[in-house]
Amino acid sequence: MPVPDRAVDARPAALADAAGAIAGALGEWGLPPATRLDLITESENATFLATGSDGRRRVVRLHRAAYNDAAAIRSEHAWIEALRQDGIVRTPAVLARFDGATVGEARIGEGIRHVAVFEFADGAEPPVDRDLPRWFERLGAITARLHTHSRTWTRPAGFTRRVWDFERSLGSRAHWGDWRAARGLDASGQAVLARAVAAIERALAAYGASPEQFGLIHADLRLANLLAAGDELSVIDFDDCGFGWFMADFAAAISFIEHEPVVPDLQAAWVEGYRSVAPLRRDDAAMLPVFVLLRRILLTAWAASRRDGETASRYGEWYTAGTVELAERFLTQFPKA
Asked: How far apart are CA 185 and CA 107, in angstroms?
């Protein structure tokens, strides 16, 4: 069947090829031939805004090769739909193809990439300004609702998502690569991070991983995955959702701004919002700095392993240096960790 002629925003050749490849799959979702594809962002996946000749907008996600398989993506979609049906969180609906499936395929080069389509949601990423603590209070409440749902939801048969334990975050089976490969990491910095990673491992072992502490989480509630519209806050992009420590969701929320002076205020607001919905033990709150550093080191490894990505490419040697600085500060503040 001939591929419809779809307009594609001017991008580097590889992304233009990707957009051309997914265009052929979009007919399965009933998108009209004149649909325009514009790149929104390229991070773990490439995300496009699809605008039809009728003006209707959808969001198309082209999944990274060899990251999430079709079963894992369907599992992500199952949780999203359960959250929507139960009224837990505002998040765009997953759109199904004519055959009822929510995962499609596009051939790019010699490989097959998975494709998913979502409703378009209005809003913008909350800015890092004086109003950010207000949004974090709301995010804390939303996160508590997510966690409460996670603990009680009966997952469907075949549900499968990755695990974000220590070994698969910073250990020998790390999903996002070896933190030692961080760009610009010298011997002195590696020694500091090695001490910090060992301290994190000890703290997590002492903390535990009971069902009250560890379960299905969003795992990427950073600002880029939040949409503020009026007084409403929506959550998007469950692509990294998996089984991890619940308190790690706060650490994800301050991804890439861990060094900002506003972080203590954000943490206080998040905790207040969380406690307005569900209990948060003192021991859980005390672990937040541990998860913040774990996430920062995890992101430093991710940036090194995803140098071809638009987002990761922005976090080079300066980000590694900041990670070492945060680790030094952590080791000073928590010498017994």
From this structure: 37
